[in-house]
Amino acid sequence: MKTILLTGGAGYIGSHTALALIAAGFEPVVLDNFANSHPVVLDRLARIAGRPLVLEQGDVLDTDWLQDVLRRHRPAGVVHFAGDKAVGESVAQPLKYFHNNISGAVSLLRAMEAAHAEDPTTAPTLVFSSSATVYGDPASVPITEDFPRSHTNPYGHTKLVIEDMLYALNAARPAWRMGVLRYFNPVGAHPSGLIGEDPAGIPNNLMPFVAQVAVGQREHLNVFGDDYPTPDGTGVRDYIHVQDLAAGHVAAIRALLDRGESFTVNLGTGRGHSVLEVVRAFEKASGRPVPYRIAPRRPGDVAQCWADPGLAQRLLGWQAKHTLEEMCTDAWRWQSGNPAGYRS
Ligand code: NAD
Ligand code: UDP
User: Fold this and answer.
1) Which residue of 1, 137, 159, 301 lies most exposed, with the fewest beta carbons within 10 A?
2) Catalytic-labelled residue, pool 12, 135, 155, 183
3) Closest approach atom of ligand 2 to CA 207
4) Catalytic residue at 292?
């Protein structure tokens, strides 16, 4: 059974990917420092998987320790989820983001390079969590991978820099196999309702905020702008079920291991939904009202953003399957069963 190391594997996307890897016959090793996740995730994962998962608790900034982890587990591939991801916080604390995200990636790549020098029989294989944020304010939709990249905040800047680091390293070391995955808007939860998104404090993202309004933890949603050039005036995004995203990682690992060619692909559905469509879908899925007020636009927001997912389909044989209704139903099962997240 091939081992796959998941940095940030206890987080929202990492935990769902760990289960998808197990279902596909891989052995995930979860590496996390629990900076933005809760150790109870491992208990939940064990309940769903029917057996405990392997955990390495520590920091990706610790290159020597990472090298030791790689030496002990000899993973066939690494998925690098670990990092900080709150846009607003990145504006207030840019150094935190440049350090944890960029230095974290450098630390991992150095450890992988050292592990490869010790055992040159296998090619280093890496999947990186990038984001649609690298497209900045796209000139048109749908977005293909060759669109120009830009950044509007330090978080997005770190994704761009890490992508460039990976491309430069791959140019110098063609034997490395790298899959850069640009996620659109991951939402939803595992159908068991045992794992899901558990943001600390006030959620920045739409779906967890809507879920907290529906469960009665927050009074109303602020809809950031209703005067965008979109069908109902509210922002349009490509929401993708986290289960589809997890399946995309399995497809990416398989493609890298089977064909050995690096790639950069969008992981999205190819469909856009407005804020008000999400509100209505969530009300239907939960049977609860989601009161909202129209508020000013959020600085830095783009009007609409959705993927052309054709390249991922051609290269990986992967396609998102879940509807917005399923995303809301699964998010609600998680939220209503765990109103205070993993602290419930
Ligand atoms: P998350 O915060 O739930 O997961 C990240 C995990 O990394 C957390 O468990 C955290 O404890 C861990 N971590 C952070 N710094 C670490 C360090 N130095 N050492 C070890 N562990 C560390 O976030 P997520 O939503 O699962 O996102 C995973 C990745 O996907 C991130 O890189 C994020 O930027 C990217 N991404 C997320 C979204 C989204 O909307 N969720 C969209 C696009 C890209
Ligand atoms: N949004 C909103 N109220 C909120 C959070 C988000 O109206 O409390 C809107 C936001 O303006 C955008 C959409 O919902 O149009 C998705 O926002 P999110 O932060 O989830 O994703 P991103 O903007 O990063 O794509």
Assistant:
1) 1
2) 155
3) 20
4) no
Ligand lying nearest the CA atom of residue 97? 1
- Check the CA dihedral 79-163-180-331 and report its sign: positive
Q: Considering its fold, how many domains does the chain have in total?
A: 1
Query: How many angstroms separate the alpha carbon of residue 102 from the centre of ligand 1?
Result: 13
In a domain, 172, yes or no: yes
The protein residue with its alpha carbon nearest to ligand 2, atom 14, reads 206
CATH at 38? 3.40.50.720
| Whether 278 contacts 209, CB under 8 Å | no
pLDDT (tens digit, 9 = 90+) per residue, 289-342?
A: 999 999 999 988 999 999 999 999 999 999 999 999 999 999 999 999 999 999
Which residue's alpha carbon is at the smallest distance from atom 28 of ligand 1? Answer: 81
Ligand 1, atom 34: nearest CA belongs to which residue? 85
Sign for the CA dihedral angle at 247, 249, 253, 256 comes to positive
Distance 235 CA to ligand 2 centre (A): 7
Measured between alpha carbons, how far is 190 from 12 in angstroms, rounded to an integer? Answer: 10
Report yes or no on 210 lying in a domain.
no
Does residue 142 have a cis bond before it (omega within 30 degrees)?
Answer: yes
**Hey, what are 336's tokens?**
């209503």
Tell me which of 33, 81, 238, 241 to substitute to probe ligand 1's pocket, judged by most ligand atoms within 8 Å of the beta carbon: 81
* Closest of 179, 188, 157 to residue 13, by C-alpha: 188
Residue 206 DSSP class: H
Q: Tell me the per-residue pLDDT of 249-287, one tens digit each, with 9 for 90 and over.
A: 999 999 999 999 999 999 999 999 999 999 999 999 999
Q: Is residue 229 part of a domain?
A: no
Per-residue pLDDT averaged across 104-123, rounded? 96
Q: Whose CA is nearest to atom 21 of ligand 1?
A: 32
Task: List the end-to-end C-alpha distance of the chain, in Å, as a whole number.
Answer: 35
- Tokens representing 97 are 């983001």
The 10s digit of each residue's pLDDT in 330-344 is 999 999 999 999 988
Answer yes or no: is 204 within a domain: no
pTM, rounded to two decimals: 0.98
Q: What is the pLDDT of residue 21?
A: 98
Cα 97 to middle of ligand 1, angstroms: 12
